[in-house]
Amino acid sequence: MKKIINTVNAPAAIGPYSQANMANGILYISGQIPVDPTTGKLMEGIEKETHQVMKNLEAILTEAGMTFKNVVKATIFLKNMDDFAVMNDIYASYLDAESFPARETIQVSCLPKNVDIEISMIAHQD
């Protein structure tokens, strides 16, 4: 059975989708962009954007009773692959080196609201 996960501590969906769905112990988190959920404002610059995306993902994980240690897969979309190193360092700072998830990083031509980064994740309950 599917359970919709929703929190005010992450940005509301900007389309016909849920922040996340839990099904059979697996949490599927929709792509998060760098919107501050309290102000609704977009962060600017890859450093601030990456931190905000990770905070949004963390809020959804927390709402589902999980942490980044539960994440088994991440997909990162970057508008500019030149931002990879900066993004990668910030991304890694939120994770436990003992439990890095599988991941791919893809450069795309455009993202919602013209942001520089979007990340989606899949997590599993232990």
TrEMBL record:
Q: Which GO terms describe its cellular component?
A: cytosol
Q: Which GO terms describe its molecular function?
A: deaminase activity
Report the Gene3D superfamilies cross-referenced here.
RutC-like
Q: Please give the coiled-coil regions recorded for this protein.
A: none
InterPro entries in the cross-refs: RidA, RutC-like_sf, YjgF/YER057c/UK114
Please give the PANTHER family that the UniProt record associates with this protein. Answer: 2-IMINOBUTANOATE/2-IMINOPROPANOATE DEAMINASE RIDA, PROTEIN HMF1-RELATED
Q: Which family does it belong to?
A: Belongs to the RutC family.
* Protein name stated in the entry: 2-iminobutanoate/2-iminopropanoate deaminase
